[in-house]
Backbone:
């Protein structure tokens, strides 16, 4: 199932997407998408609704340096345990929403990532049971103010600006995340070309590790890390991140 959050003629709702291309439709879900969804009976062509961020998490937990080649491109070692940082919920925006680039922060980079969406409250869940805690997977852009990341010595400010976590276009609930192609393009030029099989710490391990630290709530998001090839984005550009089997997340860049 592909779960989305949409703005439709009567308001905002969760929905399931059926079909592809010009024949795709969205079926409105009553209340929330967790558990067995209940449908209202309302449906619209996908072209007639606007896709929003597919989930509004209470927190976004991100993992740094989880691809060896990405760590190496910045002269860093891969940490022996997952390196965690938090992005505020206010960083989250949906497809086609602008990444608003502060004018006084220097270099701002895109980072294409696989995102894990949690489906139920969990604490201390073992890796062997991690799949039962996951609602599905979506595409993320861990936007980063690179100069601040270096000067601050910690990443809260550099990663925490409003709009610095685009998510979308929807959540796929059935895909196997172990070996997916991930590509990032800026204005159509390929910048990142990686596979999730190169993750140092795999998805089940990450869910176990994070849930030992904090309770994960339905809708919380874990960003799994980015492959090599990240780079700067500037006003007027467009960033598209594609994960095969899920879809493409595109966002324009605007200076504040």
Residues:
């Amino acid at each position: 199932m592909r779960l989305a959050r949409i703005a439709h003629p009567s308001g905002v709702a969760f929905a399931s997407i059926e079909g592809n291309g010009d024949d795709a439709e969205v079926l409105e879900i009553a209340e929330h998408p967790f558990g067995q969804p209940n449908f209202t009976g309302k449906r619209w062509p996908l072209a007639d609704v606007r896709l929003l961020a597919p989930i509004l998490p209470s927190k976004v937990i991100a993992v740094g340096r989880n691809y060896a080649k990405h760590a190496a491109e910045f002269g860093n070692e891969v940490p022996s345990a997952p390196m965690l940082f938090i992005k505020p919920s206010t960083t989250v925006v949906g497809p086609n929403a602008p990444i608003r680039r502060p004018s006084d922060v220097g270099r701002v980079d895109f980072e294409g990532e696989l995102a894990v969406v949690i489906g139920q409250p969990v604490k201390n869940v073992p890796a062997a049971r991690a799949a039962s805690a996951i609602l599905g997977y979506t595409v993320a852009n861990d936007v980063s103010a690179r100069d601040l990341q270096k000067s601050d010595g910690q990443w809260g400010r550099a990663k925490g600006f409003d709009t610095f976590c685009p998510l979308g276009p929807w959540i796929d609930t059935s895909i196997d995340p172990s070996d997916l192609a991930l590509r990032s393009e800026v204005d159509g030029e390929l910048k990142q070309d990686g596979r999730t099989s190169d993750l140092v710490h795999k998805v089940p391990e990450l869910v176990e590790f994070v849930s030992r630290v904090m309770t994960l709530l339905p809708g919380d998001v874990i960003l799994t890390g980015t492959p090599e090839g990240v780079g700067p984005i500037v006003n007027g550009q467009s960033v598209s991140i594609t994960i095969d089997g899920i879809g493409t997340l595109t966002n324009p860049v605007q200076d504040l």
In short: Residues 97 and 247 are 16 Å apart (CA to CA). The first strand starts at residue 2 and ends at 8.
